Amino acid sequence: MPFNTSEIFIDTSAFVAWLFERDAHHREAVQRFEWVKNNHLMPITSSYIVDETATVLSHREGQMLARKFLDIVPAIHTIFITEEIQQHVHTLFRAQEMRGTSIADCSNIVLMKRLSIPTLFTYDSDFEDQFHIQVVK
């Protein structure tokens, strides 16, 4: 898969699939994270995604898996959502018409545009349909 940069933005669904063994995409996600590592791509995420991922893992499996994720996160470059970025996220969110739009998803788009990261690792099909960005599954 060709990339314009050595960075890839990681969404909640990718983290959950990677760590939650009963996820439908688990095996694929394990292989994809290995591919990211082997191709020397820098995984980037946001503080919103870290919070959302820990919460989803806690709901699906329990606190032990959520804590395991939080132990892994320091090795992943995490962008913290500032007040300025949050304002841009809210502006993008308000502009959406689709029911069920996620603020966390909007934060991914804002950060990817600001940082010129062309590719998102996600299993959420809304990104391609709603935001027209390059997705790796």
Structure description:
With 137 residues, the protein is of the alpha/beta class. The chain has a single domain (7-136), classed as 3-Layer(aba) Sandwich (Rossmann fold). It is built from seven helices and five strands. Strands 3-2-1-4-5 form a five-stranded parallel beta sheet. α7 links the parallel β4 and β5 (134-136). α1 packs across α2, α3 packs antiparallel against α4 and α5 (83-95) packs across α6 (103-115). It starts with 6 loop residues before the first strand and ends with a strand. The model has no long low-confidence stretch (mean pLDDT 92).
Keywords:
5-stranded parallel beta sheet; alpha/beta; single chain; Rossmann fold; 56% helix; 137 residues
Gist of the model:
The chain has helices spanning 12-19, 26-38, 47-60, 63-72, 83-95, 103-115, 126-131; strands spanning 7-10, 42-46, 77-79, 119-121, 134-136.
Portion in helices: 55-70%
Total DSSP helices: 7
**What is the correct CATH architecture?**
3-Layer(aba) Sandwich
Low-confidence stretches: none
Number of strands: 5
Gyration radius, rounded: 14 Å
CATH superfamily: 5'-nuclease
Q: How many structural domains can be distinguished in the coordinates?
A: 1
CATH fold annotation: Rossmann fold
